[in-house]
Amino acid sequence: MPDPEYLQIDEVASRTGLTKRTIRYYEEIGLLRPPSRTEGGYRLFTDEDVQRLERIKQLREVMNFSLAEIKEHVEADELRQQLRAELRSDADAARRLQRLGQLEAATAAQVRRIDEKLHQLQALRADYDGRLERIRARLSEAQDAANGRAGEQTGA
């Protein structure tokens, strides 16, 4: 297996669209594993780190997950990766069955978190749809009233 290509924080920030400060913060709170460092103390990130940051960004921006929810989701991803690796290397049927059950449970938990967020988004959407409907009704009434007055002023 070839040595991984290492990137410095400027390159990672450029690739992910995150600020260096955000990347450091994610490392500080445990969303990102501490990267390797040069002898001079500069952080060195792998492609796997970049992929993880992109996943974190996606969960934050698309799903509007809190940092705690993101941490749970990312930890579940790590557990799934570990279980898949163990499945590939284990021939024992009982252990494989146990790991598959764990894999199913971890994935189902992630789907539930996404479903909960989607339900919240749908409820929020319904609220705004109702607001929009009321505004449009008032707008229509105001237009009708304005049209009625305009007709009276022109003698129509």
Written description of the protein model:
The protein has 156 residues and is mainly α. It has helices at residues 9-16, 20-28, 47-61, 67-89, 93-154; strands at 36-37, 43-44. A two-stranded antiparallel sheet has the order 1-2.
Short overview:
This protein is mostly helical and 156 residues long. It has helices spanning 9-16, 20-28, 47-61, 67-89, 93-154; strands spanning 36-37, 43-44. Strand 1 (36-37) and strand 2 form a beta hairpin.
Features:
two-stranded antiparallel ribbon, 5 helices, elongated, mainly alpha, single chain, 156 residues
Produce the secondary structure layout:
Blueprint: H1 9-16, H2 20-28, E1 36-37, E2 43-44, H3 47-61, H4 67-89, H5 93-154
Antiparallel strand pairs: 1-2
Give me the secondary-structure category: mainly alpha
Share of helix, binned: over 70%
Structure annotation, total helices: 5
Strands of the largest sheet, in order across it?
1-2
Quaternary: single chain
Strand content: under 5%
Radius of gyration: 26 Å
Listing every helix as H and every strand as E from the N terminus to the C terminus, the arrangement reads: HHEEHHH
Please give the largest β-sheet: 2 strands, antiparallel
End-to-end separation: 85 Å
Number of strands: 2
Structural shape: elongated
Low-pLDDT runs: none
On the 0 to 100 scale, the average pLDDT is 89
